Amino acid sequence: MTLPALGWQGLVVLVVFGVSLLIATYSTYAERVIAAFLQDRVGPDRAGPFGLLQPLADAVKLFTKEEFFPAGANRALFVFGPCLAMVTALMSSAVIPFGNVLQFGETSIHLQGIEINVGMLYVFGMVSLGVYGIMIGGWASNNKFSLLGAIRAASQNISYEIAMGLALIAVLMMSGTLSLREITLQQSVAGEWHFWNIAKQPLGFIIFIVCAFAETNRTPFDLPECETELIGGYHTEYSSMKMGLYLFAEYINVFVASAVMSVLYFGGFNFPFQYELRDWLVSSQHLELVTASNIITILGLVGLFAKIFGFIFFFMWVRWTLPRFRYDQLMRLGWTILIPLAIFNILLTGGLITFGVIN
Amino acid sequence: MSPLFLFLSFVALLSALGVVLAKNPVHSVLFLILTFFTLSGHYLLLNAQFLAAVNIIVYAGAIMVLFLFVIMFLNLNEETEPHKPALAKFAAAIAGGSLLLILVAAMRNVSPAGYDPASFDSQIGMVDRLGLVLFQQYALPFELASVLLLAAMVGSVMLGKRETGERNF
Questions:
Q1: Any stretches that span the bilayer, and where are they (chain B) (predicted)?
Q2: Interface test with A, best of B23, B27, B69 (most A CBs within 10 A)
Q3: Cβ-contact A58, A28 below 8 angstroms
Q4: Residue A155: its chain B contacts at CB < 8 A?
Q5: How does pLDDT run across A174-200, given as a tens digit for each residue?
Q6: Within this chain, do residues B53 and B131 fall inside the same structural domain, yes or no?
């Protein structure tokens, strides 16, 4: 079977889409297992071996529950809200480079949905649109708690987007490109001792990960759905699969945030000694260069997913460790600590680049 | 004219009309966001990827979120909408109509200058080229605009600053 190059790339897009959904599905399971582990409980173990079919059982439950519309709700927007949250969450994984190039004879397959030269801005734009799903859903519910959750989500996202963008600028100053693939490739150069961006941008990474927690509405910044104050925040009135879509969108956002952090700061699909390993495969195992490169690409893909899963675990670990912030503390952290720190980081990076300490 | 261009223009005009005609202000805001999206689509057709992305981030992602934020807080609906007198509606229709007339009259005889395919640079909209143009050719206006933005920022911080003795929480 021969497919034109565009056909292969379309297949990659479909696979990325499916993998995002699969990871989001099993994130719900992982969240429960990790919560159970941290709280010394058993966790889900009824559905299938080790409870592995639990997400399936959840989906069946959500799909078969009653579709409920609150009185006075704007029905069209009430349905549109969760759909929008899901669509924006799924769109952002399109530009993430999950792996390098696979060569099969004449066809070369980039393990990336689409490669555009403003990839980072694309992710940033999609993240900034994600808040609309929450706002529309919260407003359309015709419930004051939902509206307060939606308003909180909006102001929180806007505040932390600024610090996130400023932290990002320091990385872009070093890389000189907005393409995520280029940023990944720059973090490992053959035959040279080369560090990942985390070694050059430790402060920027800390700012970025704090903002990522706020942008994905995860604890300790889950103020929009803060149960003790707002019942359930923006999804108070939601039930059945519309509720499921909101939860799903959150887990996809966590996955995308983890992937972006792995790509920007932890070398993406690069892993230590990859060029040495390739040369060893060619010289000692007598493989062709193409085959050896393909093996390295697949190992890099596995490595990137290991990094992503590490970050997803970190997100869940923090959720069951830290208590929730108060809203004024959240705003003060964003505006008076993170933004000045991020600007300081830009100045520091600019100085270090000027004096040739980092490049 | 490609079908994509026609489709984008159709959606742009339709959603722009929706902004004006929608009874519910929240629907108006959502139509405006859709309009920004179609404009970004037009930028992409012109090979200006950076402009398209920044349009989404700044207008659709930040400014319209604030619009929606304020409108949700104001709780505007049809009952609270002030009804304009008939004279104001009449005057608005005449003013708008004459603006349309002038624009159509001015654009009627315009023939676009076109471009020379040999010397046209299709990469002009890319972010690196745009940066070079901004910082070399238009460095002074660019810096002046940033000073203006800084002044606006200082002003808003001044307004939002807590005064002595004032404490809300």
A1: 46-74, 86-107, 138-159
A2: B69
A3: yes
A4: 69
A5: 888 888 888 888 887 776 777 788 888
A6: no
Q: Do B83 and B138 reside in the same domain of the chain?
A: no
Percent of chain B residues past pLDDT 90, beyond the cut: 25
Which residues lie below 8 Å from residue B23, measured CB to CB, with a gap of 6+? B78
Inter-chain contacts counted by CB atoms under 8 A, chains A and B: 64
Between A25 and B163, the higher pLDDT residue = A25
Nearest CA-CA partner of A332 in A320, A340, A323: A340
Residue type, A328: D
Question: Tell me, what's the pLDDT at A1?
Answer: 43
CB-CB under 8 Å, B56 with A118:
no
Domain check: are B94 and B35 in the same one?
Answer: yes
Query: Across residues A286-299, what is the average pLDDT?
Result: 81
The answer to whether residue A180 neighbours chain B at the CB level (below 8 Å) is no
Q: Does B49 touch chain A (CB under 8 A)?
A: yes
Measured at the alpha carbon of residue A98, what is the angle toward residues A96 and A100, in degrees to the nearest 5?
A: 115
Residues A137/A145, Cβ–Cβ less than 8 Å:
no
Q: What is the pLDDT of residue B97?
A: 93
SS3 content of chain A, % helix, strand, coil (to 5): 70, 5, 25
Nearest by CB to residue B65, choosing from A158, A177, A178, is: A158
Q: Are residues B142 and B120 in the same domain?
A: no
Domain match, B93 and B144 both: no
B54 to chain A: which residues are within 8 Å by CB? 121
3-class DSSP state of B97: helix
Which tokens belong to A148?
């307060």
Q: What is the pLDDT of residues A43-83, one digit of tens each?
A: 888 887 888 888 888 888 888 888 888 887 788 888 888 89
Q: Does A169 touch chain B (CB under 8 A)?
A: no
Top mean pLDDT of A63-72, A218-227, B150-159 is at B150-159
Four-point Cα dihedral B146, B152, B158, B160, nearest 10: -110
Residues B43 and B117 in one domain: yes
Q: What is the CATH number of the domain that holds B92?
A: 1.20.120.1200
Task: For residues B13 and B74, state if they share a domain.
Answer: yes
Helix axes B64-74, B25-45, angle to 10 degrees: 170
* Interface TM-score (ipTM) > 0.85: no
Give the residue numbers spanning the domain of B43. 3-125
Using the Cβ of B53 and the Cβ atoms of chain A, whether some distance falls under 8 Å is answered with: yes
What distances in angstroms separate CA A109 from CA A5, A9, A112, B53, one per listed residue? 7, 7, 9, 26
Q: Tell me the average pLDDT across B96-102.
A: 93
